[in-house]
Amino acid sequence: MTLPRITPADLPPPPVADRRAHRTSAHGNSVDDPYFWLRDPGYPKVGDTDVLAYLRSENAYFDAAMKPLAATVDTLFAEMKARIKEDDASVPQKDGDWLYWVEYDVGAQYKKWYRKPAKEKDGAGSDKVLILSEPDLAEGHDYFRLGAFSVSPDGRLLAYATDTDGSERFDVAVKDLETGKLLPDAIPGTLSSLVWTADGSHLLYGLANDNWRTDNARVHTLGTAFEDDRELYHEPDEGFRVGVGMTSSEKYLLIETGDNETSEVRLLPANDPFAEPILVAPRRKGREYAIDEHDGSLLVLTNDTHENFRLATAPVADPGNWTTLIAGSDDHYLTDVQAFADFYVVEGRRDGLDCIEIRYYDDPDRVESIAFPEASYSAGLSDNPEYRQTRLRLDYESMVTPDTVFDYDVATRSLETLKVQDIPSGYDAAQYVTERVTIKARDGAMVPVSLVYKKGTKMDGSAPLHLYAYGAYGYAVPPGFSTTRLSLVDRGFIYAIAHIRGGDDLGRRWYLDGKLMARMNTFHDFIDVAQGLAARGYTSEGRISASGGSAGGELMGAIANMAPATFGAIVAHVPFVDVVNTMMDDSLPLTPGEWPEWGNPITDKAAYDYMRGYSPYDNVAAQAYPPMLITGGLNDPRVTYWEPAKWTAKLRATKTDDNLLLMKINMGAGHGGKSGRFDSLKETVEEFAFILSQVGGSEQAERA
Fold first, then answer.
1. Full DSSP string of 546-611
2. Which of 369, 396, 421 represents a domain boundary (last residue)?
3. Which terminus of the chain faces fewer neighbouring Cβ atoms within 10 Å, N or C?
């Protein structure tokens, strides 16, 4: 039995946005933009009554469309919540004299942070101590997010940052963990990590400027006023962002700056933040590098000689003199390096599969690879805060294996399972099948696809299929586990992740072949995967739902324009769809730093023309579109709310079908949607209810 398919005929008339004359011109082109007015001129404050009225009318229409699905929403939420261990806790990890972990109370939306002495003591000293309560901090706020969290080296002070409206401007507080009281030190408007100096008397951070860009590294001296804080570094390039960090040895503070293709790093002694910074190597366009330190030598991960990166070393005294430790390779894509006292760990991918290698300073030829039990999985280093580490904390999962925490004993080369994600309502991995297949794209590229489905699912084209991808910034979507996904899979869906170009799933070239003037490959890959899976009998065209967010939302907009008949429903979360207008506006928070990813249409006519050819908003056509759900956040600094709003308005006025088009704008949240583990779950429930109502599937989940 399937759900009733909700259409506009079942609902009140949809909102209709005003059309107001506005024209933009560039490179000899003049373009009408009648929905430009939806951008409040007072942004980031949004107070225009017409704008707010339109957004609220769309939200009311969304609510009306979801009302007939109320029973399904309730059922899905109950299922998903039942898969969550409400009183869950993380595995404690040692950092200095303490063990740290987090716990959830039953029914709580947010975590509590605890610690206890690493060495057992007599009396009350061995009891766990609550050092931070997110539920208390979130009290009275519709939105809450804990950002940076940093304990001073002596374990006495905690610096933490909070955001209570989704705008991602975090306010920093400092807590004395011995007394439990807040210190008078407060830092407003940060957008960075928080890094203590060696003696715990100073705190490094970065402020967000008026354009929501971190162009600085600053230092706060405990006990002094915020206004007296000193700027250690200011970045002159408006496209670069500044971050602060510390080497694993905790000998050096890091000031890192860069954009999506170029980077530059400076070192400061951890005990003297006011010393003259040591520049590792001056920026060179297209060269990226990151560093760690061991015993007076740097480990340098860089793409200067190979696009898949090499690992080099250099003395701190001569930091730009790089000598290769691991040469760049077409087969081994290096993604990260972390130094420990007796060895270092290199993370990367071979043939798209995660690999972790332990290497030794005194024996460059000695390489120990950590072996995992499945043919397809996601694995990586977890939290390993101590420099003298003999056991490595790892995270592991696959499409059918729940999140698993391992400790790897370096001496015995053995894995110890510390925790497997608990699914209280029950889960039997034997009832599910996972596959990794490749689909040939139109230009001959072979695109990997990870799939999971119930055992016994018929491969005759009758099954609905949900296809997800991101495809930008070199982010590889891992073939990991999801409890929420089971609510589709248990209703007969095949769930697929398309590892399309634009991500770096198959190495750096895979990413480069999906950016700038190769961006169309990303959209073509996704469409070709959808149609290829249908051709192989996994599903059939029109039975495919698709979703993506942010840059993945841009992907959803592009495929809706290019291949609407292939998809039975599309969900676009916080979608980056007004590409040309956003990339032409250098006052917006992200724009200058995004030009290396998308191109600069202000100065480059070829980039402008290419962007105009795929920008979802600019290419809305008088054609039939599949049912669509679009979301946004009023306080989103990454993809501003008017992008989904303008796109929705234009789609309503232009499309020729009578399929459902919904938009929901979170009026008190930002890029990540609602906060809190249950409130955010409700948004997944709404997405799945929409998909089920449009594409179909069993109304009741089959028991695994």
1. EEEETHHHHHHHHHHHH-GGGEEEEEEES----HHHHHH-TTSSSHHHHHHHH--TTT-HHHHHHH
2. 421
3. N
